[in-house]
Amino acid sequence: MGKGGEDYGKSENSGSSKEMDGDSFAAWSIDARECEEKYEVSREHGLSGGDVEKRREIYGFNELEKHDGPSIFRLVLDQFNDTLVRILLVAAVVSFVLALFDGNEGGEMEITAFVEPLVIFLILIVNAIVGVWQENNAEKALDALKEIQSEHASVIRDGKKISHLPAKELVPGDIVELRVGDKIPADMRVLSLISSTLRVEQGSLTGESEAVSKTTKAVAADVDIQGKKCVVFAGTTVVNGNCICLVTQIGMNTEIGKVHAQIQEAAESEDDTPLKKKLNEFGEALTVIILVICFLVWVINVKYFLTWDIVDGWPRNFKFSFEKCTYYFEIAVALAVAAIPEGLPAVITTCLALGTRKMAAKNALVRKLPSVETLGCTTVICSDKTGTLTTNQMAVAKL
């Protein structure tokens, strides 16, 4: 994986290489020649093969970390991480056991006895399939962020120009030549302009559609991304001009790598949506009500399976009927199962799935079904809409 210079300088054999770490100094705030000295490279000769190998051992490859998405089994289990669904699952199991018990006792007909538990199981299975399908498709679509990275770069090494070097093989200190239309493969310091001007479209990072003019002059150390006029960023595109650059950050230490890390962190720390919170509250309340009803129904019928005689003011001669106790327990459980809204999860999932389909038709990706309802609860949206409501790309409409 590309460490992007995160551990650069930690090796005992790195010598003065520690000074070259892009995190240890602001490359945009120092002169271009000083940058070359820091990275121990010249724009005319580039890095040697030995230098490249040493730096790759420390930096790794220039690529975003691959976060393995949740397995299908994990996604399936997540669909049952809901109070109401768990209640339905317990109800289905209890109904199945009671139906099996009645069949063995010669009671209700076999087929009709298993209709209710089978219907509940079917509802839960359909509910899980829809949820897994939606989330699995969303996970695949989110991987599209990696397509922002460039695949090849024009690099100078050992005094020779390599026109199509795989971008993932870049290391800090590499000298790269950029031309019009190139997708920038790493965060780089502009050393010199081949053309009179250099303009870069970096809307993928800033959201601003207007191309930014780049220069070789150093800027203040505390400026934001848009203000770093002498730095070009991975994933952005050269729209005008040619230049020679010095790679300062690769992999996850690039700005696009930091965005990737933030997306992954946000995905791992998702809070419950308002809908899920309400359903959990409803499920907890329903559980208490069902347990109380079961207990009351069972207690009311205690006199039918537990009898005794009063002798000298004290109960004596207790008689207990296990068969009748089981019978009234079945009645209590059946009443509880009947009180559970089996169709509610399926109805909710169907409505949310329809919502995601409508949003997908308008190119809006929904990762988790309940997020649709969360969007419906939104009262205020704060957004810088400049260049962000469209793709910011021209397309052929008519020939």
From TrEMBL:
Q: What's its membrane topology?
A: Multi-pass membrane protein
Instruction: Name the Gene Ontology molecular function terms of this record.
Output: ATP binding; ATP hydrolysis activity; P-type calcium transporter activity
Residue stretches spanning the membrane: 83-101, 113-133, 285-306, 326-354
Segment Disordered: which positions? Answer: 1-22
The protein's UniProt keywords, in alphabetical order, are: ATP-binding, Calcium, Calcium transport, Ion transport, Magnesium, Membrane, Nucleotide-binding, Translocase, Transmembrane, Transmembrane helix, Transport
The EC number of this protein is 7.2.2.10
Tell me where in this chain the Cation-transporting P-type ATPase N-terminal domain is found. Answer: 26-100
What's the name of the protein? P-type Ca(2+) transporter
